[in-house]
Prior knowledge:
- The protein is an alpha/beta fold.
- Helices cover 38% and strands 14% of the residues.
- It contains twelve helices and eight strands.
- Strands 2-1-3-4-6-5-7-8 form an eight-stranded mixed sheet, with helices on both faces.
- Strand 5, helix 8 and strand 6 (204-209) form a beta-alpha-beta unit.
- The two termini are 32 Å apart.
Amino acid sequence: MSQIQIKDQIPTGELMSSGHFACPGCGGSLAMRLVLKGLGPKTMVALPACCWTIVAGPWPQSSVNIPLYHSPFETAAAVASGIRAALDMQGDQETTVLAWAGDGGTFDIGLQALSGAAERNENILYVCYDNEAYMNTGIQRSSATPWGAWTTTTPAGHPEARPKKDILAIMAAHRIPYAATASVAYPVDLIRKVEKARAIRGTRFLHVIAPCPPGWKTSDDETIELARMAVLTKIFPLMEVEDGQTWRFSMEHPGDPVEPYIKRQGRFSHLGPREIGQIQLDVDARWKMLERRVEMGI
Length: 298
């Protein structure tokens, strides 16, 4: 697809200003910009503690031109559910209520509220921008941190020893109407999924890979390329799941070797050929499992 074709498929309106507090190269700020392009101005955001608490700016200023409600760390989905109920009481069926949280507030601290909202099938869109650690508080590991990664709580001598939690499968197990993964390196795919989710009633979940230069120990200008490599290596497949049963890939994944992706990130600099080989084996095994889900609808 040419750059002109891509540009034609991305809405031109902007609901996010340039005067925000994100780090240079922040994948999370780009994720918000693209999601808001897909949702439009009739959107309200519930925002728990995360990098975006800072990026948005202190009240009464905000870098997003929509109503934004700061919530406690663990309550993004619950607060979004309450906002949705209030709008319904007012007869407002047009406004999309967006819960926006990082991986810490989704995979870990906010999982109970998210699970409760999903079990009730609350009419909200929940987006997790995933930078694979608690970046706002100093790069501590979360259950989204990949195996082998350095963080301040999993130092090089004792790196992350557990695999990344499969949050997409967890949400699919709730049999919600729509769940998907997306990458800031594929804006057309991301916006298409946002627009699709906006048109669905019930709980919708979008998991967006959003590289973090300070936490991943990469250069500011590598964010898009790393987000693309995560997809092309099958480390972060782009998928959709409908009603918890119909799984499908939303693009082709060539299966590039993981080694170049791993070696570009300083958080993996302590890993040797044996550990990188193990990551490749794990990625290949998970891919086979996903293929079975797509084939069998499980």
